[in-house]
Amino acid sequence: MAPSAAERIVIENCAIATVDAGDTEYASGHLVLAGNRIESVGAGKAPEGLENVVRRIDASGHLATPGLVNTHHHFYQWITRGLATDHNLFNWLVALYPTWARIDEQMTYAAAQGSLAMMARGGVTTAMDHHYVFPHGSGDLSGSIVRAAAEMGVRFTLARGSMDRSEKDGGLPPDFAVETLDGALTATEETVRTHHDATFDAMTQVAVAPCSPFSVSTELMRQGAELARRLGVRLHTHGSETVEEEKFCHELFGMGPTDYFESTGWLGEDVWMAHCVHMTDSDIAAFGRTKTGVAHCPSSNARLAAGIARVPDMLKAGVPVGLGVDGTASNESGELHTELRNALLINRLGAHREAALSARQALRLGTHGGAQVLGRAEQIGSLEPGKLADLVLWKMDTLAHASIADPVTALVFGAAAPVTASFVNGRQIVENGRLLTVDEDAVAVSTRAEAQRLARIAAQA
Question: Can you give the residue ranges of the Amidohydrolase-related domain (predicted)?
């Protein structure tokens, strides 16, 4: 808990969805932030006699929720948006890898700024980036991404990716865009030791994240898992995204993706997978039994025609599930708050129809579910005393939402709600939909310039 001498911010008169274990909600309540922690949350006005109150916010007409938690993304793709728009996953990768293989540190930093800015201004307080493209001589890509997140003021998990299966080995990436087995493991360990913070209120953490079964050798998968567990960090990769991937695994390994992951040490409560669209009953049972997490990316799955993930069945089986933007070359909006709505609507097209997901289940996926998947549910993902002060005030009294009586229904079913204020670690980073930590207009200029530079380099190659 925060010390009594901490500076306090008092927020009052708002609806509150705590997303705690009991889904506690208040039609009109208060929050008290003390330093970087939530000190109290409850109905009515804040307690009288609070000391060191530096700010009072009348949040009438707003809904307060935990900050959104993104569990899967590829920041570098911000500068290759709008390409290969009519491709499935494998053809999309073949089309774009030659361009991605020419990114450098300056491009990666600008792309990270663009990706982070779009998420943060839409209510994301914890971001995640799975970066796995490390062309030879491209500079300190991991460092540039961490720097961009720190400057933005968001909580951040860097999944340090890797690839060692190139075209010559039957993979998809160009030969010059992959690392060696030893090189990938060494660089990953260095990234963990340089950037990972294991403390309760850490702003930056690192996970070990070989890219996918079809771009990574079995040895890199196996040794990557051993490395992560030796260092005490989490594991992340892509899994069961398409029918083509399942066919690839059967042809190359003689088994489906989930069995392959289990054979290489990649199931467990310290693991989360992106997508998991094509899962059998036994696959889901294995994830539930081992508490392997899933990053559900509904918009990207639709964009690449991958299919509909069986999220209701996963939740029933006890699988931790969060939401992911995925890379902005397959989800050009780059926003997580729209994924609340898309997750609900797309899952209702599946077998469970109208019973698939409710508004509150969708909100839980984007907050507490994401915190579970990233291994941070003790610190973030719900509004409870003692947790870190990561929260969002959504403006719900405008034309877009005012006639919807229930604010959570309005947030999920309605148009994307404006963010009046977003706090991370007790620090406000968004005010009235604009970032307070970076110049959005300057970021727009730099990302456009870097996208154009990358396009020219790729064209010349």
Answer: 64-427
